[in-house]
Design brief:
Blueprint lengths: L2 E6 L5 H14 L4 E5 L4 H5 L8 H10 L1 E4 L13 H8 L4 E7 L7 H4 L5 E7 L9 E5 L2 E4 L5 H18 L3 E6 L7 H13 L6 E6 H10 L6 E4 L1 H14 L7 E5 L4 E5 L16 H13 L3 H16 L17 H10 L38 E11 L4 H9 L6 E8 L2 E4 L11 E8 L7 H11 L4 E11 L2 E2 L8
Helix pairs in contact: 1-12, 6-7, 8-9, 10-11, 11-12
The structure holds nicotinamide-adenine-dinucleotide.
């Protein structure tokens, strides 16, 4: 049965590598039909604020599958990255990136005889990629880092299911919960909650800096790692380096309704238009897509031809033996096509399902909303962020005049470090403070009372923002200041 997919050629080297990959697909008779969609820099330039036409959006939502080349986001125009927007808008919550040593691609590890075969599953929607940032004073920029229970559960469950399908025996969670106690803490708590459903998979967690050190010193320790968005982005580029660079790093952005397959690398403007780009990462992404579609035989045949070609020492300009001439993009694709049917000496790929594909993706009639935890909530105070050039003690004198019968001033901090009632004279300040009020024991406070105190403070300061202090199921849902 033939399947129709949406294809976006992309910008820079995108059209060159996409043409090469689709030629290989056609030669391998992959049974795909393509509907080309209009997305990328030229569509931003033509005035489409999302970087794609309405017809492109309709096609992708109808077909549920997008194979895309890299795309450039115009700089300095305030527009958001089309790559990130596409992943977020269509909820492709799990970004799976497979990294393995390839014969013919020399790395420090291949030379040392250490094979690498690991998968990073990166959360793809949340974290700092919410892109919610504000300049609160002309000196102070603040970004929101959003980690949610449903979002974490979705990607972590995907990682465990993937580990099970691939026959992995272990899955690690990378995090920085020692510092980001509530955000990464929630991700980690969710990881161990879901791990209980997969007792056959050994689950562990590792602090992300230690993870980076271990990945470069003992990569064979890991089979699969699940991480939040930004840490996952950084760690997966590190892993690309372990297996020979961005030219060999594929990615699958998996959602329940729509999935996107693309290379990890960008548009490579420095070599665009010269026909010399390496199409391997996009080809490997296409191979992931074929497996996702259940075309496991075609996927294995193309991958074996690619591995055989690499073993022959055929290479593009970005890798391989510099003493032998490099192939251009088309010559590299031609060599793979000529090698279809060949098997590599090492690591023959056998057809095996890698994904659980829902052929008839749902077309929902309304946005899905998930509330996964419902515990008793209590409002216990407020942090009011204000702009001020005053010293902490002066600020405290003014803040004390704003307290009510129920709310007391407990702490003032600057850049997260407590500066009142105690602190160090050596703590350097910027012009944005946090003033924390908490309710007195035995009292109840309302949102109205809290907003009133912020209103009172606005007589003396610019109020930059207000955050409620909450308890959930009796546990405090906010962090203490350093030194508090
Ligand atoms: P890049 O990945 O485009 O290039 C980094 C370096 O790697 C360059 O030297 C480039 O020549 C080389 N390179 C990348 N892919 C290659 C390939 N297939 N063959 C040979 N060499 C290759 O990263 P960049 O320069 O930081 O970004 C350029 C543009 O790409 C930016 O506009 C960025 O926003 C965009 N980008 C898009 C995506 C995406 O579409 N998913 C991802 C990353 C960057």
């Amino acid at each position: 049965m033939r399947t129709k997919i949406a294809v976006a050629k992309g910008d820079g080297i995108g059209p060159e590598i996409m043409a090469a990959v689709l030629r290989i697909f056609d030669a391998a008779d992959v049974q795909l039909d393509y509907e080309y969609v209009e997305m990328g820099k030229s569509y931003f330039d033509a005035g489409h604020s999302t970087g794609m036409t309405a017809a492109a959006k309709e096609t992708i939502e109808r077909l549920g599958l997008l194979f895309k080349g890299p795309m450039e986001t115009p700089k300095g125009k305030g527009v958001k990255s089309i790559n990130v927007t596409a992943r977020k808008v269509w909820n492709t919550y799990a970004n799976q990136r497979d990294f393995r040593s390839l014969n013919g691609v020399d790395t420090v590890f291949s030379k040392a005889g250490i094979p690498i075969n690991l998968t990073i599953v990166r959360e793809n929607i949340e974290d700092t990629y919410g892109g919610i940032e504000h300049l609160l004073t002309s000196d102070v920029a603040v970004g929101r880092r959003i980690i949610t229970r449903p979002g974490s559960a979705q990607v972590i469950r995907y990682a465990f299911e993937m580990a099970r399908r691939k026959g992995y025996t272990k899955l690690a969670c990378g995090h920085k919960a020692n510092i980001m106690k509530l955000t990464d803490g929630l991700f980690l708590e969710t990881f161990y909650e879901i791990a209980k459903e997969y007792p056959e998979i050994e689950s562990s967690d590792i602090i992300v800096d230690d993870l980076c050190m271990k990945l470069v010193s003992r990569p064979e320790m890991f089979q699969a790692i699940v991480l939040t968005n930004l840490q996952g982005d950084i760690v997966s580029d590190l892993c690309a380096g372990l297996v020979g660079g961005l030219g060999f790093a594929p990615s699958a952005n998996i959602g329940d309704n729509i999935s996107i397959f693309e290379a990890v690398h960008g548009t490579a403007p420095d070599i665009a238009g010269r026909g010399v780009a390496n199409p391997t990462a996009l080809l490997l992404s296409g191979i992931l897509m074929l497996r996702y579609l259940g075309a496991t035989t075609a996927a294995a045949s193309i991958e074996n031809a690619l591995l055989y070609t690499l073993e022959q020492g055929i290479h593009t300009g970005d890798f391989g033996d510099r003493s032998t001439p490099s192939a251009n993009t088309n010559e590299f694709a031609d060599a793979i096509i000529a090698n279809l049917g060949q098997l590599p000496q090492k690591g023959v790929v056998i057809p095996q399902p890698d994904f659980e594909y829902k052929a008839n993706h749902d077309h929902p009639s309304k946005n899905k909303l998930t509330v996964s935890s419902n515990v008793e909530e209590e409002m216990v105070g407020v942090d009011v962020f204000v702009e001020s050039n005053k010293q902490p003690a002066e600020l405290a004198e003014i803040a004390k005049t704003k307290t009510t019968d129920n709310l007391q001033l407990v702490m003032i901090s600057n850049r997260g470090t407590q500066v009142w009632p105690t602190g160090s004279i050596f703590t350097e300040l910027v012009n944005e403070y946090r003033i924390r009020f908490e309710k007195k024991d035995g009292t109840r406070i309302s949102q109205k009372e809290i907003l009133h105190i912020a209103g009172e403070l606005s007589d003396d300061f610019k109020v930059c923002s207000v955050e409620f202090l909450m308890k959930f199921g009796g546990k405090i849902g906010y962090t203490l200041a350093q030194g508090q």
